Amino acid sequence: MKFKFYFLVPVIALFNCKAQTIPLYVGTYTNGDSEGIYKLDFNTETGDLTNLQLSTSTENPSFITYSHNKKYLYSVGESNETISAFKIQKSGTLELLNTVTTHGGAPCHVSLNTDGTKVVVSNYMGGNIGIYKILEDGSISEASQVFDHNEADEKPAHAHSAKFYKDDLFVSDLGRNRFYQYKLVDNAYQLESKSIINIEGNPGPRHFEISKDGKFIYIINEYGGSITSIERTDTGFKQIDTDSTLDENYEGKNSCADIHLSKDERFLYASNRGENTIAVFERDNNNGTITKIQNISVEGNWPRNFTLDPTGKFLLVANRWSHNISVFSIDSSSGKLKFMHDAKIPEPVCLLF
């Protein structure tokens, strides 16, 4: 049985908020009631989510991202080892441009380079990453480069996320407990380091954030329930801190998922699946260290991806198992969160403004 969605919004509010409404696209898992990528209208003044629509039917679009001009959207197909390019229509629906293979199982992350000419896809089960060119019509080429992290007689690689920063490409590999660095040389990427720091134990580096100046990197560890803070130095990189994402009284199982810096980079946010919270950290913009100031319930179950809206006033969480998106207001001075309301949607896993 498919979900039915009802959003009750006063008629006067609809007229008043029209000019401050922006789209929110939602990637989902389609194992149950979901049919693909959805779109909601988000009010940047009230935080309301309205007008749910199915933008395109596609299988397990678990991670999505925009082109730089927001005319196109790119989505991995986690169960069929593909990445697809869509053109965004005025109605909010998505027109498929093309689909290509990711050359690895369970693609779980996609991101663009600085000038929007390339995308990189991380393949969790494949343990590799693929780099693709974005063509003039918004479609994507076949992979121009594929880097495999698997090695003989070693535990399987699980590339979980990758991001470009200027001429660098960083990759977080949960299976190998490594943080790879690639360098752009003569318009192609080359391996610079199998791990920019020595990651001890088995914390499972998953997603990460890079400060705007490129000086600090924050890695969230899925198994370790922690954040590893890294500083770029004149000679390379060094670890400066490790901080728990969990409340000191929590004793249950946990798997960390996502991490984001606030727009002004004064605060860092991280999601806990199990404790089902968002951990809030205050950040020292000078030395890059972080201090936890809050753990707040996500008002749902199994928070996967979350995002901050473009105004920086709201944080939205995709709760996979409770089938809802929770909306929090952000205190601009303290960075702390306050739950406002939620909207029902089947198996949300990725939120895109």
Automatic annotation (TrEMBL):
<dbReference type="Pfam" id="PF10282">
    <property type="entry name" value="Lactonase"/>
</dbReference>
<keyword id="KW-0313">Glucose metabolism</keyword>
<dbReference type="InterPro" id="IPR050282">
    <property type="entry name" value="Cycloisomerase_2"/>
</dbReference>
<protein>
    <submittedName>
        <fullName>Lactonase family protein</fullName>
    </submittedName>
</protein>
<dbReference type="InterPro" id="IPR019405">
    <property type="entry name" value="Lactonase_7-beta_prop"/>
</dbReference>
<dbReference type="InterPro" id="IPR011048">
    <property type="entry name" value="Haem_d1_sf"/>
</dbReference>
<keyword id="KW-0119">Carbohydrate metabolism</keyword>
<comment type="similarity">
    <text>Belongs to the cycloisomerase 2 family.</text>
</comment>
<dbReference type="InterPro" id="IPR015943">
    <property type="entry name" value="WD40/YVTN_repeat-like_dom_sf"/>
</dbReference>
